[in-house]
Design goal:
The structure holds 2 protein chains of 2 kinds. Chain A is an alpha+beta fold. In chain A, strand 6 (244-247) and strand 7 form a beta hairpin. In chain A, helix 18 runs antiparallel to helix 26 (851-877). The chains are: A alpha+beta, B alpha+beta.
Chain lengths: 888, 118
């Protein structure tokens, strides 16, 4: 055995030259002998050679007899392919770039989907983790309830749920940091003391929050930080445990670091800090609201006890919900509870639209990549056509078909390798871009083995997609025909038809994408010009939060009045209004209302967008009241004047009026909400783009009376003075009103920019997709016409020799292309119109549906397609007729 | 090159070439051309070794460790690669010879006496 191994080693080094020498020596010895037998020297050599036969073929066979040398062959093929690519750098660069984009984009999206929807929570036995959602008895018929809970409800449930090995709760909040990190806010979880115990996670450093640190309120200033936070903010400080961190108005001791990869249990963003929920007032600088049974923004998670089932948990939840309904009829009167598995970061029922849209995006990218691969395949086919003679010679010299196929595969493999390297970089870049968005930050898959594995898989699939067909084609042809330099049999009809179909599909897809991009850009342009429904210039919006410690009582209302009065007297200010939100500023909410007299269909949602507004809100914005009046001072205070429950005036927008009172006068109609009596519609306001730019939603405006759960409000000022000066004056006015913290002041123009940037990103993304599709279509057409040219070279040569003019040949090739473009454009046009229709039904009338973006898209596409086809077609007409005739 | 017509020559049976090479090499080390010549002569000019199969066969035998090769100089001063039997090769030759004789006898029984003479 050892002998054999040594021999294998030696044999690996037995060079070609050695074997060639042996054969030469054989022929020489044979010739010597023949000469001794009486032949002339020249004859002897000739006969010896002839007897030996095809020297080259034996050499090749010698090669292949040595399996060990397969590696050598592959190495040589790769070097050969590398040289080939060096000779056509532009081809190589285009292909590598296209592959890198395709591989990278696919890998990025797949790994984000993987992280969010497929990977399980990084905790022991994740399949036993479940979540409890709240619902409303009135909405039972609707899709599964996914509502959140309140901490008081959680504390009650903790004692009552059966079949669970602990029940934990957390509430997410953006917490402001202090000291050196002032100005930054981090996404944090305010957790029950047993949060980490229930999950079963082990700290990477220090310890986690203990169950006894949950109470009493405000007593345990401890915080656990995430691995990412530790790395980015503390530069992996080894002595991190015990350091202080200023959060909100409090100082917290860092007691531990979570293990890497544990980004919390909340899908909307990576959790960086974990604190006891009883520290929320200190950590947020806001009031403590977690003792409010109606403050439902708490998630409850639990771990199934061994041998317990979710059904058992659900049974005890049903009983608990019944008890809560009877014990707290005011607040929990409609409460239902539901247990659901929570083994993954995002469950499908929590975010079906997220999974669907990600999958759609991925499908589109995969489709583009597939199209790109087929295009590259046809380019490769055209290249292979040019190399036919070389392949023919090699086959005649004895290369086996397998060898030829393998060698043809070397070039795609090399291209795909470079594409994969670029793809990893692009994938990383795209994931960073995606996860930089706050709500996606928990979905960073990192650059781990799974991502690299995904890239590798896609790359192999890519090689197969664009490399295998040309490689097999190359090895299958008849060497003699190839040697003659003619094309041999014409490509089979099915392949040719596939190529045509591909081009038609590409033209259609690019047209759809281009038309969509053009339409979105047009919509965006129209929006920025503004049919906003309000008058954006000269508006300043100040978001104000009361300083912590101040008790929000009646006092608060008088402070607001004071700010309003003082702001009105500022120079240049014509209007001032106070509200819970401003156009395009988050702060609206959804409120379940029951419209009196409206027959609700089964499952019809009752929630409508709402906003609390003060007197003069619409006048300040420059909105138009179609009917009635807006709120006045008298709507602000009810008869009792102290406890605000029940106010009887609302204003609705036109969309709301159209929805519930079509064809009627909405004025004087009634609706009820929460457990209040009926309120009367006192005004109808013209639709505004005040929630999003893309669409108009049905809205109800309530008088600003009641304190919201988080007492934040907005001061809107219309001022003709210089914005910078107005901003300064408004700031000092608000700050001097003592219990108010530093306001954040933006001009409406800035808010508009921010909102537009989102739709801008969307349309730019679509435009890029359209551009890529256009490029791919051009490449595809180029490849198709080039391969036509190569396939029909002899035919063209004969035509030219028989007196055809180059322009006639040109027309022959371009005519075929033209038909394909026409068919593709017709299909694409239909698709684009259908797609825009669908989008219009989704987004409403703000989507611009005009003819000219379609016309532009068709023109751009045709121009690009014609150019792409023209170049190879022109080359085909430059064939030397004599040469191609000779070849035939 | 030879006295007989090509028509009288016989193609080698699959697998017999290895045996013939080993048998030829029992008489001493020899180069490829010498092996081919020896087989032709010893078979009274009947068996013509396809040169193209000779070298793969030599490779195969070498790989199995039955023969080994080294470069040397021929009687008329040409550089050539000489092959010789190894210990394993001798055992293999004995084994294969035995098997061959058994096979020939068995096939002879089946075919019976030749009709032309009988």
């Amino acid at each position: 055995m050892a002998n054999y191994a040594r021999w294998m080693f030696w044999r690996r080094w037995r060079a070609n030259a050695d074997f060639a020498e042996e054969i030469a020596s054989h022929v020489q010895l044979e010739a010597d002998q023949l000469q001794r037998e009486g032949m002339s020297a020249a004859d002897a050599r000739h006969v010896a050679r002839r007897t030996f036969g095809n020297v080259g073929a034996w050499k090749e066979r010698f090669h292949e007899s040595r399996r060990v040398l397969l590696i050598d062959n592959i190495g040589r093929d790769l070097v050969h392919a590398w040289r080939g690519l060096r000779r056509s750098p532009s081809f190589a660069i285009v292909v590598v770039f296209t592959l890198a984009i395709g591989i990278g984009a696919n890998a990025a999206i797949i790994s984000v989907i993987d992280t969010a929807f497929l990977r399980k929570l990084p905790v022991p036995a994740p399949e036993r983790i479940f979540a409890i959602f709240s619902g409303d008895v009135h909405n039972r018929a609707r899709s599964p309830s996914i509502g959140w809970n309140s901490f008081p409800d959680y504390v009650d449930l903790r004692a009552r749920v059966e079949g669970a090995d602990g029940l934990a709760a957390y509430s997410m909040e953006m917490l402001p940091l202090g000291d050196t990190l002032a100005g930054t806010s981090v996404w944090s979880a305010l957790v029950s003391g047993n949060y980490f115990d229930v999950l079963g996670v082990r700290p990477a450093r220090g310890r986690f929050i203990r169950p006894d640190e949950e109470a009493p309120r405000g007593a345990h200033s401890v915080v656990v930080i995430s691995d990412a936070f530790w790395k980015s903010r503390f530069a992996r400080d080894e002595h991190i445990v015990g350091r202080q961190l200023a959060i909100g108005t409090g100082r917290f001791t860092i007691v531990g670091v979570a293990p890497p990869g544990f980004t919390g249990t909340h899908p909307e963003g990576r959790t960086d800090l974990w604190l006891p929920y009883t520290m929320s007032a200190e950590a947020s600088g806001k009031d403590y609201v977690f003792d409010n049974r109606d403050a439902r923004f708490t998630a409850i998670i639990g771990r199934l006890a061994p041998a317990a089932s979710l059904l058992q948990v659900q049974g005890s939840l049903d009983r608990a919900a019944h008890d809560l309904r009877t014990t707290y009829p005011d607040l929990d009167g409609a409460l239902t509870l539901r247990a659901a598995k929570h083994e993954r970061l995002v469950t499908f029922e929590q975010a079906p639209e997220a999974l669907v849209s990600f999958t759609l995006v991925w499908a589109m990218i995969a489709l583009l990549h597939l199209v790109a691969c087929s295009n590259i395949a046809s380019l490769m086919l055209a290249r292979a056509a040019a190399r036919r003679q070389e392949v023919g010679i090699r086959i005649c010299l004895g290369a086996s078909r397998g060898r030829i196929a393998l060698q043809s595969l070397a070039e795609p493999a090399l291209l795909a390798f470079f594409g994969a390297v670029g793809g990893v970089m692009i994938a990383r870049w795209i994931t960073l871009l995606i996860t930089r968005m706050q709500f996606m930050s928990a979905m960073d898959p990192g650059l781990d083995v799974r991502v690299l594995g995904i890239v590798a898989l896609i790359t192999v699939a890519t090689v197969v997609e664009f490399g295998l067909a040309p490689a097999l084609g190359a090895s299958r042809r008849d060497p003699l025909t190839m040697l003659r330099g003619s094309s041999g049999a014409r490509v089979t009809g099915s392949r040719d038809r596939a190529g045509r179909l591909l081009v038609v599909a590409q033209v259609a897809v690019s047209l759809i994408l281009l038309a969509n991009a053009a339409m979105l850009l047009r919509t965006f342009e129209r929006q920025s010009r503004g049919t906003l429904g309000f008058d954006a210039p000269h508006l300043l919006v100040a978001s104000v939060t009361p300083r912590s410690g101040s008790s929000p009582t009646n006092d608060w209302a008088s402070r607001i009045r004071e700010i309003t009065t003082r702001a009105t007297s500022l120079p240049g200010v014509s209007h001032v209004a106070v509200s819970s939100g401003a156009p395009l500023l988050p702060g609206g909410f959804y409120q379940e209302v029951v419209v009196t007299g409206h027959q609700y269909a089964e499952g019809e949602p009752r929630a409508v967008s709402g906003q609390n507004i003060g007197p003069g809100y619409f006048a300040t914005l420059g909105a138009t009241l179609v009917r009635g009046r807006e709120f006045t001072e008298t709507d602000r205070v009810n008869e009792a004047g102290v406890t605000f429950h029940g106010f009887d005036a609302v204003v609705v927008n036109e969309a709301m009026a159209r929805r519930f009172w079509p064809g009627e006068d909405a004025l004087g109609k009634q609706l009820s909400y929460r457990h209040q009596g009926a309120a009367t519609v006192v005004g109808v306001v013209r639709d505004m783009h005040d929630v999003t730019l893309s669409t108009i939603v049905s809205r109800v405006y309530f008088p600003l009376l009641e304190l919201p759960a988080t007492p934040r409000f907005v001061v809107i000022v219309r001022s003709t003075a210089d914005p910078a000066a107005s901003r300064l004056m408004l700031r000092s006015t608000i700050v001097s009103s003592s219990p108010m913290s530093e306001p954040s002041i933006q001009t409406m123009a800035e808010l508009l920019d921010g909102a537009l940037s989102l739709s801008r990103i969307g349309s730019i993304g679509l435009a890029i997709c359209g551009g890529i599709a256009l490029l791919l279509t051009a490449i595809g057409l180029y490849g198709l016409v080039a391969s036509w040219g190569a396939e029909r070279r002899n035919e063209i040569g004969i035509r030219l020799a028989l007196g055809a003019q180059p322009w006639q040949v040109h027309r022959l090739l371009m005519g075929g292309v033209g038909r394909l473009i026409l068919v593709g454009a017709a299909i694409g046009l239909g698709g684009a119109v259908a797609m825009i229709r669908v989008e219009k039904s989704w987004y409403g009338p703000s989507i611009a549906f005009e003819a000219w973006p379609l016309v532009v898209a068709v023109l751009v596409l045709s121009a690009a397609a014609a150019t792409a086809a023209y170049i190879p077609s022109r080359r085909a007409t430059r064939i030397d007729p004599a040469r191609s005739l000779r070849a035939e | 090159m030879s006295t007989q017509d090509d028509a009288d020559r016989t193609e080698l049976l699959q697998g017999t070439l290895d045996l013939l090479i080993l048998r030829t090499l029992r008489q001493g080390r020899q180069h490829g051309q010498g092996v081919a010549r020896a087989i032709l002569q010893n078979s009274r000019d009947v068996l013509l070794v396809e040169h193209g199969s000779l070298y793969p066969a030599l490779q195969r035998l070498e790989a199995n460790g039955w023969i080994r090769a080294e470069w040397g100089v021929s009687e008329n001063n040409r550089r050539a690669r000489f092959y010789e039997l190894t210990k394993d090769g001798r055992q293999q030759l004995v084994k294969e010879t035995g098997e061959w004789r058994k096979l020939v006898r068995a096939v002879g029984f089946i075919l019976g006496p030749e009709t032309a003479r009988g």
